[in-house]
């Protein structure tokens, strides 16, 4: 199964390069605090070309608009989308504002989801990530990557079967 780990490492390398080339890291440092989440942070990238980030903010709406404007001016991403999940909440989505940054890299579509949230949501994500990390060993990483590959081969997407759902099932986090 070393091949699946090599695929994951290659995918994460592309993601890391995208973050670097876009200047995302230096822009994020302008805000209160931030954390990478999901498969990028856990080194479990495989089929979904996305990077998830949460930004802690006392003023999520204002900070998300500021962030949006920065990347609008940079003209690095092909598509930038904005979402309001405070006034228009959805199940299984944070109570915050999102900026989606999209770009094609090496012939594949990539998405960076940057959520601007309050302290409660930020801390909740931090705790969830810690619980996952506590149970994540090489054997579980392999099981997760295999399940993600099955999702890809079955042509399911992250909305039909989320990575978080896969982590919870394999790691027994109910």
What report would you give on this structure?
- The chain is α+β, with helices and mostly antiparallel strands.
- The chain has 7 helices and 5 strands.
- It has a 5-stranded mixed β-sheet, with helices on both faces.
- Helix 6 packs across helix 7.
- 27% of the residues are buried.
- The mean pLDDT is 93.
Strand residues, percent: 15-25%
Count of beta strands:
5
Terminal residue distance? 27 Å
Which second-level CATH architecture applies?
2-Layer Sandwich
The first-level CATH class name: Alpha Beta
Largest sheet: 5 strands, mixed
Q: What is the molecular shape? A: globular
Number of helices: 7
Give the H and E element order.
Answer: HHEHEHEEEHHH
| Sheet with the most strands: spatial strand order | 1-2-5-4-3
Radius of gyration: 16 Å
| Helicity, as a percent range | 40-55%
List keywords for this structure.
51% helix, 5 strands, alpha+beta, 174 residues, Beta Polymerase, domain 2
Mind sketching the topology for me?
Blueprint: H1 2-22, H2 24-28, E1 33-37, H3 38-42, E2 50-56, H4 60-74, E3 79-84, E4 97-105, E5 108-117, H5 119-135, H6 138-153, H7 163-171
Helix pairs in contact: 6-7
Q: Quick gist of this model?
A:
With 174 residues, the chain is of the alpha+beta class.
């Amino acid at each position: 199964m070393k091949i699946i780990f090599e695929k994951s490492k290659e995918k994460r390398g592309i993601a890391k390069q995208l973050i670097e080339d876009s200047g995302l890291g230096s822009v994020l440092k302008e805000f209160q605090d931030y954390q990478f989440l999901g498969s990028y942070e856990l080194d479990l990238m495989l089929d979904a070309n996305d990077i998830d980030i949460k930004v802690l903010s006392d003023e999520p709406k204002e900070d998300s608009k500021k962030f949006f404007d920065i990347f609008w001016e940079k003209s690095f991403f092909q598509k930038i989308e904005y979402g309001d999940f405070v006034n228009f909440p959805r199940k299984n989505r944070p109570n915050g504002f999102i900026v989606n940054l999209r770009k094609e890299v090496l012939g594949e579509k990539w998405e960076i989801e940057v959520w601007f949230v309050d302290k409660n949501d930020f801390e909740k994500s931090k705790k969830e990530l810690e619980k996952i990390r506590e149970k994540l060993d090489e054997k579980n990483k392999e099981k997760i990557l295999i399940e993600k590959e099955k999702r890809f081969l079955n042509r399911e997407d992250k909305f039909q079967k989320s990575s978080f759902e896969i982590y919870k099932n394999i790691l027994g986090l109910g």
